[in-house]
Design brief:
two-stranded antiparallel sheet, about 35% helix, alpha+beta, 8 strands, six-stranded antiparallel beta sheet
Amino acid sequence: MNLVTKNENEIVNQDVSENAPNASRLISALRHLGYTNASALCDLLDNSIDAGATEIKLEIKEDEDSLLFRLIDNGRGMDMDDISQSLRLGSNTKRNPVKDLGFYGMGLVTAGISIAKRVSVLTRKKGGNVLYSYFDVDQAIENNTFDNVRIKATKEDARLYEEMLGQGSGTIVTLSKCDRLQFKGTNTYENKLKKE
């Protein structure tokens, strides 16, 4: 676009071009936004509430030298467009500003990467197929892009989904490759989250 309004009465001919941020630098900066581990996990729980979940479970497991967090809810679930938006910084999802908690569209990825290098989503809408997608910090920094990866859910993915949520709708968000843990051990996180 070449025409930019300088003020109400004057239009100046200027060259305007997109000035996208450097993905790897921005992702690295977003990982240090000030989320505590507990507030990041609570932000993810808010997403489940916004999705109409009546049951929400948070699993914390030992994972090699780190921990793995898995949030399981029986909410509405997502289709592929929903997943793309959920793993997008500044997502463009329709929200109710009065009722919905994640109003600014930064929650899932920003909260997730404040703890972990990989945020993955396994989900199904009522009557739909199990879908899988992820955002990986290392991959994004290496490629210098904001890509989220959409992959057809494997039989193992579908089996995991059904073990946790049966045939109904819902979402499983997994935080893995956790490198920004503030506490050690599952018991410490359990006690901290109960207080939050």
